[in-house]
Write a structure and sequence with these properties.
The protein has 6 helices and no strands. The chain is mostly helical.
């Protein structure tokens, strides 16, 4: 059941990233057209594209986490015996969870700090821009918990699939 929930979350995140990337492309093209063809720039296009790119980064990070696409030191893990590789992956995932928890809390603190501030060009609440930090950390933590749940259920199971970086597939 947990894996089905994570798969649904992933599909939703993928859709949001695709829509955000399309919107960013359109906004940037509008900005370029207005600036170079009409010789009159629109100030909101830069700001909106910047905020969309921040959201894309934080929403795409959990997708990359699930696919094992984040940078890692695979060559070291692959040199380790399989049993040690398994435990190092568990410890690494635990440390990632602690880090994500820290960043999540700091992101919430940042939201409190910018409450009431408006963006310069569009007058949007700055909390919308900075909310990407705890949101992305939350979804990444869900992915790490999914990996850990699967890994802990399959202790001793010799048939488990592994990613090239040694993390257990969900």
């Amino acid at each position: 059941m947990w894996q089905k929930i994570l798969a649904t979350v992933q599909r939703t995140l993928e859709l949001l990233v695709i829509v955000s990337m399309a919107a960013t492309t359109v906004v940037v093209l509008i900005g370029v057209f207005c600036r170079y063809i009409l010789a009159s720039s629109l100030p909101w296009t830069e700001e909106l594209s910047r905020y969309l790119l921040v959201w894309i980064g934080f929403l795409a990070a959990p997708i990359a986490m699930r696919r094992g696409a984040h940078v890692g030191m695979q060559f070291i893990k692959l040199m380790l015996p399989e049993r040690i590789r398994y435990w190092t992956s568990l410890m690494g995932s635990g440390m990632v969870l602690v880090f994500l928890g820290f960043v999540f809390v700091q992101g919430l603190n940042l939201l409190v700090g910018v409450a009431g501030q408006l963006s310069p060009a569009m007058s949007l609440p700055m909390t919308w821009a900075y909310a990407a930090i705890p949101t992305g950390c939350f979804f990444m933590a869900l992915e790490v918990l999914g990996l850990l749940t699967f890994a802990l259920r399959s202790v001793g199971d010799q048939t488990q699939e592994q990613r090239t970086d040694g993390r257990v597939l969900g």
